[in-house]
Amino acid sequence: MNNIFEGVFKFKNEDYEKHKNLFAELESGQNPHTLFIGCSDSRVVPSLITKTLPGELFMVRNIANMVPPYRETEEYVSTTSAIEFAIEVLNVKNIVVCGHSNCGGCASLYKSEEELKNVPHVRKWLELANPVKEYVLNNIKAEEKRGMGGVNKSLLTEQFNIVHQLDNLFTYPFIKEKYSKKEINIYGWYYMIGTGEVYNYDKKNGSFNIIAK
Ligand SMILES: [Zn+2]
């Protein structure tokens, strides 16, 4: 659908009507169970891939689903304030950091200053993932030294980026505390756009495993 006005009309007449009671209930407030930190990419639709309704996911979306480290800088408060609000005020029970295949943000980590000169804010934002880039480049070098070629650089970047953002979540004292008291679950997901598969990060094995019944 290209006509977004037509979409609004259809929403009101079809979807809203279908969930009228839910919307009436939600009018007075929200009580989401999950903070979903995803990429701004138009192909990632959190409510669709989790089959959730309005009121269930509190979302933070930005380029490459990033979590700025706690109070390291005041430059990224748009993201950090939403995380703080979800945990401290809304008391969500889960946090999901969801990355995805063919992420343009992750690919841009390897672009030169010249290539990013028209998007200075994007370039600044991507600095948050410098440790990810470093890790991937070192890892690929090490693999090559061992004579193991064929490492998929974009997959490695996208998946390690998720792991790095999970680490950054633990720089938030209130998240660390709630997690240690088992009051909150934290997940890292990798969504494959072309197959519809979602993989969940297993910290013990350091691997992403497909979510299946
Ligand atoms: Zn992306």
Q: What descriptors fit this protein?
A:
single chain; 213 residues; alpha/beta; six-stranded mixed beta sheet; globular; binds zinc ion
Walkthrough of the structure:
With 213 residues, this protein is α/β, with parallel strands linked by helices. It has one domain: Beta-carbonic Anhydrase, Chain A, CATH 3.40.1050.10. The protein contains 9 helices and 6 strands, in the order H-H-E-H-E-H-E-H-H-H-H-H-E-E-E. The protein has helices spanning 4-18, 20-26, 46-49, 77-89, 104-108, 120-126, 130-145, 153-169, 173-180; strands spanning 34-39, 57-62, 94-100, 185-192, 197-202, 207-210. The chain has a 6-stranded mixed β-sheet. Helix 7 (130-145) crosses helix 8. It is globular. 27% of the residues are buried.
List the helices and strands and how they pair.
Elements: H1 4-18, H2 20-26, E1 34-39, H3 46-49, E2 57-62, H4 77-89, E3 94-100, H5 104-108, H6 120-126, H7 130-145, H8 153-169, H9 173-180, E4 185-192, E5 197-202, E6 207-210
Parallel strand pairs: 1-2, 1-3, 3-4
Antiparallel strand pairs: 4-5, 5-6
Helix pairs in contact: 7-8
Bound molecules: zinc ion (ZN).
Task: Describe this structure in a few short sentences.
Helices cover 43% and strands 17% of the residues. The chain is α/β, with parallel strands linked by helices and 213 residues long.
Identify the CATH class: Alpha Beta
Percent of residues in beta strands? 15-25%
Order of helices and strands: HHEHEHEHHHHHEEE
Q: What count of helical segments does DSSP give?
A: 9
Distinct ligands, ions and cofactors found in the model: zinc ion
The CATH superfamily is identified as Carbonic anhydrase
Domain count, please report it.
Answer: 1
**CATH fold-level name:** Beta-carbonic Anhydrase, Chain A
Biggest sheet details: 6 strands, mixed
Q: Averaged pLDDT, please?
A: 95
